[in-house]
Amino acid sequence: MMDAPSASPLQDGYGRRIDYLRVSVTDRCDLRCSYCLPKDFKGFETPANWLDHAEMQRLVGLFAGLGVRKVRLTGGEPLLRRGLAGLAGAIAAMPGLTDLSVSTNGTRLARHAQALRAAGVTRLNVSLDTLDAAAFGRITGRDCLASVLEGLDAARRAGFAPIKLNSVVHAATPEAEVRRLLDYALAQGFVLRLIEPMPMGECGRGFSHTDLNAMGARLARDAGLVPALEPAGGGPARYWGTGDGAPALGVITPMSRHFCASCNRVRLGVDGTLYLCLGQEDQVPLGRQLREGASDADLVRAIRAGIAAKPERHEFSSRPERIVRFMAQTGG
Predict the structure, then answer these.
(1) How far apart are CA 249 and CA 265, in angstroms?
(2) d(CA 235, CA 8)
(3) Which of 13, 53, 171, 246 could pair with 208 in a Cys bridge, judged by C-beta atoms 3.0 to 4.6 Å apart?
(4) Which of 76, 81, 73, 79 is nearest to 29 (CA)?
């Protein structure tokens, strides 16, 4: 990939460099994880309001021209969106980008892993909260654990590395099950990341978090892991690794130990809404402006103005009722 353009980089009002964009390609999902979406939820964005691939490419290209180096394609479940590999290939070829990744629940990964790898996607995050089939069904609303494990095998064969397993761990999660996930990750060469649930929407507020810093330290000690440097790709996780320094276990703790001071990301919803913080309502309607005929210069001004107004931090602890939208509506 070429060097990044010379335009002045994005920096918010608190001096944070914004170089990471998460792009939701759909708010639809084929699972109904209990901490994410209600089972009977029907409030999805109208497909006519979804950005098409050309519109997504245009906006992502503007962010790349402003110094964004990392892009993650998310959802909902991104593999539900037709032509994702083609979109990924177009984004991977953009000058300045150094990292393109995908977050997925893994149910469709077996059939798409090779095409994503060929398109230029380098890393995968796969949601996996349990290895117990019955518990998986209760959490997600579907009996499809075998499909997720098949997808992980296919991703490894396709050459993805690292493959990160994202596991939401709350106060009622048995630590023995988390230990089982860690054993599986170590055996497969994956990285397990434990994530505290966030109070987004009524679902998210239904789960109490537990301090994963302490749990991670216990699991790492018992597995013989040691503190490790952050792996390539950046992000909020703190890691423990194997003797050769490779990360194996991480914790992401937005509740017990937030990382807002080093936040380097913003999110683009499927309709082109730019969300500046998961825990605030600050947003910029880039998709609407684009469809109303805004020029690239107009959109760049709107992006810069939005980034300048990015909130200092979320208020998940002090005002958990503030965010009524669900995670799938924002993009993971």
Answers:
(1) 22
(2) 22
(3) 171
(4) 76
Does the pLDDT value for residue 40 go beyond 50? yes
Q: What is the pLDDT of residues 305-326, one digit of tens each?
A: 999 999 987 655 555 555 555 5
Write the DSSP symbol of residue 212.
H
AA identity, residue 224: G
- Model pTM score: 0.91
Contact call for residues 106 and 147 (beta carbons, < 8 A): yes
Beta-bridge partners for 99: 70
Pairing of strands 283-285, 273-275: antiparallel
Residues contacting residue 267 through CB under 8 Å, at least 6 positions apart: 21, 22, 23, 24, 74, 274, 275, 278, 330, 331
Q: Where are the beta strands (DSSP E) in the chain?
A: 20-24, 70-74, 99-104, 123-127, 163-168, 191-195, 226-228, 238-241, 247-252, 265-268, 273-275, 283-285
Q: How many C-beta atoms lie closer than 10 Å to residue 179's C-beta?
A: 15
**Which tokens go with 299?**
């959109």
Please give the distance of CA 230 from its chain centroid, rounded to a whole number.
17
CB distance 148 to 128 below 8 Å: yes
Local structure of residue 98 (DSSP, 8 states): -
Give percent above pLDDT 70 in the chain.
Answer: 85
Predicted local confidence at residue 317, as pLDDT: 56
Give the residue with greater pLDDT, 187 vs 257.
Answer: 187
Quote the DSSP letter at residue 209. Answer: B
DSSP state of 19: -
DSSP string, 289-330: HHHTT--HHHHHHHHHHHHHT--S---TTT-TTS--S-HHHH
How far is residue 48 CA from its own chain's centroid? 24
Contact (Cβ atoms closer than 8 angstroms) between residue 119 and residue 160? no
Cβ-contact 160, 117 below 8 angstroms: yes
The pLDDT value recorded for residue 257 is: 64
Q: What percent of the chain has pLDDT over 90?
A: 70
Q: Which pLDDT value is given to residue 208?
A: 64
